[in-house]
Structure formats: structure tokens, C-alpha cells
Amino acid sequence: MSECSQHCLLCHEQSSHKSYFEEDILKKTPYELVNGKKRNIGHLKVFGCKCYNNGKESLGKFNEKTDVGIFLGYSLSSHAHRIYNKRLMIVEESIHVIFYETNHAKKSCRGR
């Protein structure tokens, strides 16, 4: 074999090894590399969607049971959700939240 053909063969082996390495290792998250499976993110909610906060402390006889709000994110200090309450016009944290995540709600969240 000539030196040129050996060099081409070596380059081909390196490139095939590189593509295997890129496909298998570089495209995986650290969680996938350690645990061998993808992480479940089904519990995450869509930001900016309509939600209902039903965690009122003092509920009067004729008061509404829930407040309509917009989901802003997750609390940094607890397992609560951060919600903009439209009636009170404040940002509050609550764990008693019902999310309205239909296709119609997702479209209205983007302002369309």
C-alpha cells in the first residue's frame, strides 16, 4: 500500500470514529449519560398560560372560589408556582393551581 492510501484509510477510520462519538456522546445530556435514559419533563407547565389559583385562605359566602391568573414560573424557595393574579394585580406563589393548557390557551398566551 502506498503512503497516500494508508493516510486516506486512517483518515476514514478517524472520521467514522468521530461521527460515532458525536452521535452517541455529544448529543446526549449529562443526565442521559449517567442514567441511560432521557429525563421526564412532562410535569413542566407552559409559561404564560391561563391558570386558576384556588388557594384562598378566607373564603366568604359570596366570594369567587378561584382567581384567574397567568403562570409566570416556579418559586425559588419552595415547590410553589408563581402566578400573576389578574384580580388583585399582584404576583403570588401558590401550590393550589389548576392549569388551562389547551391549544386555544397556548395560542392566546402568545397574543394571537
Structural commentary:
- The protein is an alpha+beta fold and 112 residues long.
- It has two domains: 3-35; 50-109.
- It contains three helices and five strands.
- It has a five-stranded antiparallel sheet, with no helix packed on it.
- The radius of gyration is 26 Å and the shape is elongated.
- The model has no long low-confidence stretch (mean pLDDT 76).
Structural class: alpha+beta
Strand order of the largest sheet: 4-3-2-1-5
Overall form: elongated
Distance between the termini: 66 Å
Helical coverage, percent range: 25-40%
Note the beta-strand portion: 15-25%
Order of helices and strands: HHEEEEEH
Total beta-strand segments:
5
Q: How many discrete domains?
A: 2
Mean pLDDT: 76
Major pleated sheet: 5 strands, antiparallel
Counting DSSP H or I runs of 4 or more residues, the number of helices is 3
Radius of gyration: 26 Å
Residue runs with pLDDT of under 50 for 5 or more positions: none
Q: How are the SSEs ordered, and which strands pair?
A:
Blueprint: H1 3-26, H2 30-35, E1 50-53, E2 67-74, E3 81-85, E4 90-94, E5 97-99, H3 103-109
Antiparallel strand pairs: 1-2, 1-5, 2-3, 3-4
